[in-house]
Specification:
The protein is α/β, with parallel strands linked by helices and 360 residues long. It has 9 helices and 14 strands. The chain has helices at residues 16-24, 44-61, 75-87, 101-110, 225-230, 240-255, 258-278, 308-317, 342-359; strands spanning 5-6, 67-72, 94-98, 116-121, 144-147, 150-151, 156-157, 168-171, 188-192, 203-208, 284-285, 297-302, 320-321, 332-335. The strands form 4 sheets. A 7-stranded mixed sheet has the order 2-10-9-8-5-3-4. The structure holds pyridoxal-5'-phosphate. Pyridoxal-5'-phosphate (PLP) binds next to α3.
Length: 360
């Protein structure tokens, strides 16, 4: 069986070269006579692989020394609670931008622990653009400002940061490592691994030192960044396979020129796909404001939605899988993370052209 072009939003496609390496090491890893999943996380071989993965991520993202990198479980969703709990000590309101499905969820969870101020809300328009920072209702006494720079479902992205001196907490689940960012401008960055990093079950948290150490005594210790930082993310058994595989993806990215190089490819991929959608004489359309179109998640609608089922069936048969849009949006969505090469975009655009020709 040959591999498909996988446009899944997550868990998503992983680099084939990485999967091949993992396959080779499945029975016997690193001279230990067992797979990486079968050995202690406290043994030297795993500790070395874990440290290397962290170093490679630090190199790729230019993470300053005054930030901890945590390899956790619980998904980005656990961070929706961990962030307010860890930062509650700062006092004041917590500012949240409501720009899509995932920020809505983050707000709902944060409200259980802190007084949330929603600085902007595009839910009424169905998440089609992000208002500029000058239009945000930021509070003077905010403990922190939470943003979701790429909303995976609506395909809405913004690459700027709000104008604030408060710690910025960002859910980068679907955009981490897709383009360079200045980590020093953030208080906390977090991301579930299953899009641009590795398998589901691993969550990366990058947190500035001064935001650690004031966790409420009566809350679950596993959410305390201090506990996890002091134990090198090994307070309890970490997700060893995910950590190991993430390390392979980081190494692959470094070998391929790092985040700067992949960002150029990602920009070109997005340009080609949106370019075709915009030039399809209205057969296909993307509803998002041009300046907020996501590089990673490209939703598109067919003018005649009665053709949706045929589009999905025929694209699937052509080896282009997981193109169905999220149920809340409908239509199609192509998720084109780092592991999706330009060949996948070419195959998709070719299919879209021939489907249009057959149905116009
Ligand atoms: C932007 C964003 N945030 C949070 C989540 C939830 O992540 P998890 O399932 O890892 O908790 C997702 C999942 O797709 C996402 O895309």
């Amino acid at each position: 069986m040959s591999r498909i072009y996988n446009f899944s939003a997550g868990p998503a496609a992983l680099p084939e070269a990485v999967l091949q390496q993992v396959q080779q090491e499945m029975l016997e890893w690193n001279g230990v006579g067992a797979s990486v999943m079968e050995v202690s996380h406290r043994g030297k071989p795993f500790m070395a692989a874990a440290a290397q993965a962290e170093q490679d991520l630090r190199d790729l993202m230019g993470i300053p020394d005054n930030y901890k990198v945590l390899f956790l479980q619980g998904g980005a969703t656990a961070q929706f609670s961990a962030i307010p709990l860890n930062l509650k000590f700062l006092g004041g309101k917590a500012d949240y931008a409501h720009t899509g499905h995932w920020s809505k969820k983050a707000i709902a969870d944060a409200k259980r622990f802190v007084d949330v101020n929603v600085v902007c809300d595009t839910s009424a328009e169905g998440y089609k653009h992000v208002p500029s920072s000058s239009q945000w209702n930021l509070s003077d006494d905010a403990a922190y400002v939470h943003i979701t720079p790429n909303e995976t479902i609506a395909g809405v992205e913004f690459d700027w940061l709000p104008d604030t001196d408060k710690p910025i907490c960002a859910d980068l689940s679907s955009t981490i490592l897709s383009r360079p960012i200045d980590v020093s401008k953030y208080g906390i960055i977090y991301a579930g691994a299953q899009k641009n990093i590795g398998p589901a079950g691993l969550t990366i948290v990058i947190v500035r030192d001064d935001l650690i150490g004031n966790f409420p005594a009566d809350m679950p210790r596993l959410m305390d960044y201090q506990v996890m930082a002091e134990s090198d993310s090994m307070n309890n058994t970490p997700p060893t396979f995910g950590w190991y595989l993430a390390g392979k993806v980081f190494a692959w990215l470094k070998e391929n020129g790092g985040v700067e190089a992949v960002a150029k490819v990602n920009a070109a991929k997005a340009e080609k796909l949106y370019g075709y959608i915009d030039n399809s004489d209205g057969f296909y359309s993307n509803p998002v404001a041009i300046e907020n179109r996501s590089w990673m998640n490209v939703p598109f609608l067919l003018a005649n939605s009665e053709l949706d089922a045929a589009f999905l069936e025929q694209s699937h048969a052509a080896g282009l899988h997981a193109l169905k849009g999220h149920r809340s949006v409908g239509g199609m969505r192509a998720s084109i993370y780092n592991a999706m090469g330009m060949d996948g975009i070419d195959a998709l655009v070719d299919f879209m052209k021939s489907f249009k020709a057959a149905n116009s």
